[in-house]
Amino acid sequence: MKPKPFDYVRAETLDEALDALARHGADARILAGGQSQVAMLNFRLIETEVLIDITRIEALDYIRIENGALEIGAATRQSDLKDWPGLAEKVPMLHAALPFIGHVQTRNRGTVCGSIAHSDPSSELPLCLAVLEGEVVLRSKRAERTLKAADFQLEMLTTARAPDEMITAVRFPLGDASAGHAFDEMNRRRGDFAIVSLAAVARQDSVRLGVGGVAGTPKVRNWSELRTGDIDEALNAFAWELGGHDDIHGTARYRRELVRRLGRQVIEEARSCRR
Amino acid sequence: MPQIGRNERVRVSLTLDGKKVSGLAEPRMLLSDFLRQQLSAGAVHVGCEHGVCGACTIRVDGRAVRSCLMFAVQAQGCDIETAAGLAGEDGELDALQKAFRKNHALQCGYCTPGILMSVTSFLDSNPDAGEDELKDMLGGHLCRCTGYVGIMRAVLEYAAARRA
Fold it and tell me: Which of A188, B10, B85, B158 is deepest in the core (most CB within 10 A)?
């Protein structure tokens, strides 16, 4: 239950972090909140030669609105986003989803970008990023590039990040005031990993539904027109497409059933808060 | 930019329950182990060592966090608070500890110091928290003795007394 030995680098600026990444590449890992990563290091599920700590880079600790999006820096804690006064109005989906993320004690240290970098299929923030069509800003010493959520999230715990790149920020588009948003998930105990998580955005007749925990990455479906009488059939088809997997927490069949039942609930909830 | 080799032991200085202290740590040393082994902070209890049980919860710069999910070298210069700092110099229990004692909120006591630190931190930033929010906060801790009823009673009593 102790990590293998590693070298530690505390970056004080973004340039220092990028220098260290350029030098060590795939031998290094970025340490942000560490609420998943340190547990995995303790278990020796992962190991690293070098750990680059970015938590003290003040320039990466920010929440700001820019070009119609809420931009969150790589050192910003989940608690700080949850407590950000404008959140319910600016990005209602995040306001709905954040209380489900771990516990207050892990949100106090865990970062928003770290969760997205980790890309656990059952995590709430990657699902929000996918359903809201957010973006990930990646920097290396070579260049900066911005990827859409769908291009960043490749497979379970796998992203398009190159070994010398790090996430410097993520961007969530601001919610439009007429749309309704809802988020819900099923787990055995509040704060545990979700067995299935769902996020819905409803506008006039259309619905956009994201599902986490069933496939390897969050999957999103758009229905430009979804009549109330057609919801069950649409969800059933989506559930079978997602497939699902058996594990200690539930069978693939149970996961598909959760997509059908919770799916209906979040769609109805999102529709009820349209304006 | 500070860089520490894997076999290097460096001096980590921090404030522990109001006193400036320091000890030696290599990069992979967990903060929980550092506090116990180097600084004799016995109020830091180590349970699961992967962030689930909450026994090792301490306050770092005011916020309740898992000390098993931080490395000691990350705590350089931080203000660390543990349950050992709650009681007065004369050993008199503070109001939260008294509420725990009165309501039989502990049996073996292993989870208790972590819970105490979560409660004080949470109420500092959410002084008006209601029963549901306090339950949610307590969800970050495992207690295998009490069934949580006594703990909730103690926490609610303490929260009400703080507001009064």
Answer: B158
Angle between helices B131-138 and B149-163 (to 10 degrees): 130
Answer whether B66 sits within 8 Å of A109, measured CB to CB. Answer: yes
**Nearest chain A alpha carbon to B118:** A105
The residues spanned by each domain of chain B are: 10-85, 95-163
Fold of B10-85: Ubiquitin-like (UB roll) (3.10.20)
With 90 as the cut, is the pLDDT of residue B9 above it? Answer: yes
Neighbours of A87 (CB within 10 A): 18
Q: Which fold has domain B95-163?
A: DNA polymerase; domain 1 (1.10.150)
Which residues of chain A have a CB within 8 Å of the CB of B77? none
ipTM: 0.96
Q: What is the mean pLDDT of chain A?
A: 96
Would the CB atoms of B74 and A53 count as touching at under 8 Å? yes
Is the per-residue pLDDT at B79 higher than 80?
A: yes
CB contact under 8 A, B69 and A191: no
Domains and CATH numbers, chain A: 7-53 (3.30.43.10), 59-173 (3.30.465.10), 182-272 (3.30.390.50)
**A131 pLDDT tier (thresholds 50, 70, 90):** very high
Q: Which residue has the tokens 């379970």?
A: A156
